[in-house]
Amino acid sequence: MREDLDLQLNMLRDRVATMGNRADEMLDGAIRALVDNDLEAAAEVVNSDPGVDSAYEQVQHGVLALVALHGPMGHDLRVATALIHVSLHLERMADYAVNTARAVERATELPRDNDLVDHLAQMGGHARTVGQMALESFLTEDEELAKAAATRDDEVDELELIIFQHLMGLAGNDSSQIEWATRMMRVARHIERYGDHGVDIAEQAFFVITGGTVDL
Question: Which of 6, 48, 162, 202 would disulfide-bridge 134, Cβ 3.0–4.6 Å?
């Protein structure tokens, strides 16, 4: 029974790891679509979402089956519970990547500011790092890495504020760029939320390790 439980937990961890890698690739693709003004790359991100949704459902059903069959306790139960939450956060992260890609699709014909695009790309890179570190902290049960992921998210938030200020100034100074600036404000918010869900995953790592909850 112990071997079966470990096998199923490892399979679920692997599935969550695959979800995380896919969400990361999707945000990377959305940012590249933004930088290159590439409709094809944006469409590829959007088309990837059903696969993440399917994996999310598989994790949810897998955890429920595991609990019903094995009745895990202690650390095993914390891992099973956290897998449900982590898979949900990853599914949402993929959704924010899709939202970013859709914003790119709607803005390709609009006049743009390349300096602000560079800032958004930098923000996206930080958000991806938060997600990568947080997922690794969960999979390896590394408390220090979880803390580092939360700290890295501060850089995402700082860039969002800078970008919002620049976009508001851009829209105020050039009426032809109001629509593009408005859409890029949404992109910045999608990227910020992606990073926030990464921090939520880091908090799940703490829960698995300590059995307690923490607000990072």
Answer: 202
74-107 and 114-140 helices, crossing angle to 10°: 170
| Calpha distance 43→98 (Å, rounded) | 9
Cβ distance 191 to 104 under 8 Å? no
pLDDT, tens digit (0-9, with 9 covering 90-100), for 172-181 = 787 878 899 9
CA distances from 123 to 3, 128, 132, 184, 187 (A): 43, 9, 14, 12, 10
Q: Give residue-wise pLDDT tens across range 34-80.
A: 999 999 999 999 999 999 999 999 999 999 999 999 989 999 999 99
SS3 sequence of 190-201: HHHHHHHHHHHH
Q: Does 169 score more than 80 pLDDT? A: yes
Q: And the tokens for 38? A: 């590439």
Tell me if 92 sits within 8 A of 179, measured CB to CB.
Answer: no
What whole-number distance in Å separates Cα of residue 10 and Cα of residue 16? 10
Q: What contacts 196, CB < 8 A, 6 or more positions away?
A: 153
CA distance 178 to 174: 7
Rounded to 5 degrees, what angle do the CA atoms 210, 154, 126 make?
Answer: 100
Q: Which residues contact 56 (CB under 8 A, 6 or more apart)?
A: 19, 87, 88, 90, 91
- pTM exceeds cut of 0.90: yes
Q: What angle do CA 135, 42, 107 make, to 5 degrees?
A: 120
